[in-house]
TrEMBL record:
CDD domains named in the record: HTH_ARSR
Protein name: Transcription regulator
Phylogenetic placement of the source organism: Archaea, Methanobacteriati, Methanobacteriota, Stenosarchaea group, Halobacteria
Location of the HVO-A0261-like N-terminal domain: 13-67
InterPro entries, A to Z: ArsR-like_HTH, HVO_A0261-like_N, WH-like_DNA-bd_sf, WH_DNA-bd_sf
Coiled coil: none
Gene3D superfamilies: Winged helix-like DNA-binding domain superfamily/Winged helix DNA-binding domain
Amino acid sequence: MSSVSGTTDDVPWDDIGFVISSRYRVSVLDRLADGPATPTQIASDSESAVSHVSRALQELRDRSLVELLVPEQRRKGRVYGITDDAESLWRIIEAQQMA
């Protein structure tokens, strides 16, 4: 029997650790929790370089925490949104004051 309480067994600690280990990933999820946005909007809102935001978006997308909301072939006006999994993850990060 595990000594960890049932409530923490279901917490995706690996994903949480991945997100909070980068201020750019944190700022991207924080912004997208408010609604869909383009990389330029996220960069402006978080006072980060677009290149850092783009890298963070790709890393989060690779983990299925962020999704592209427009066709893949679109190069301008790429709008991203947070996935349901990431929304749950973000609530935990905020509740635990990890961001």
